[in-house]
Amino acid sequence: xxxxxxxxxxxxxxxxxxxxxxxxxxxxxxxxxxxxxxxxxxxxxxxxxxxxxxxxxxxxxxxxxxxxxxxxxxxxxxxxxxxxxxxxxxxxxxxxxxxxxxxxxxxxxxxxxxxxxxxxxxxxxxxxxxxxxxxxxxxxxxxxxxxxxxxxxxxxxxxxxxxxxxxxxxxxxxxxxxxxxxxxxxxxxxxxx
Length: 193
Known about the structure:
- By secondary structure, this protein is mainly beta.
- It contains one helix and twelve strands; from the N terminus they run E-E-E-H-E-E-E-E-E-E-E-E-E.
- It has one helix spanning 47-59, and strands at residues 2-6, 9-15, 24-28, 73-76, 80-86, 103-111, 117-126, 129-136, 142-152, 159-166, 174-180, 182-188.
- It is globular and about 50 Å long.
- The chain starts with a strand and ends in a 5-residue tail after the last strand.
- Residues 12-19 have low confidence and may be disordered.
């Protein structure tokens, strides 16, 4: 459950992960005044420089000919920076089965206090959970695994490739990824290899 900005108001958004009926309740209300807040005076690197450096890294990787140079999703905060460059031949479907085990693209992942990681991203199912698995570009060896809380494949939807983050009052923030006909929410930052 979380507070989200919905238009020009904030709503309390409650949903149950793996809810088979896909029931989501929106309760409109004012933003609580006692929520812990963080100052927004951040010194982040210029995004254009970052995009150029990331593309240069990919160009010397074994996957250099597979990416779509026009698409890139970015999420930049002081505590985490994530970028996804999709593969040209990555799935684009409204069926979850078409995405499972298929490489989505190259993912850059860096958390505060940790070394950056450049890896291939795949969505896998390991009963009863789904995971975003990151594999070394050269060897294919698994280098990270992040649990996914909720998956949706809206029928007839073509979603832009984008990343989002949802802060929680208690616990780590959760990430979100939309990828063509696939929406992943509640991606845990913790690597649970």
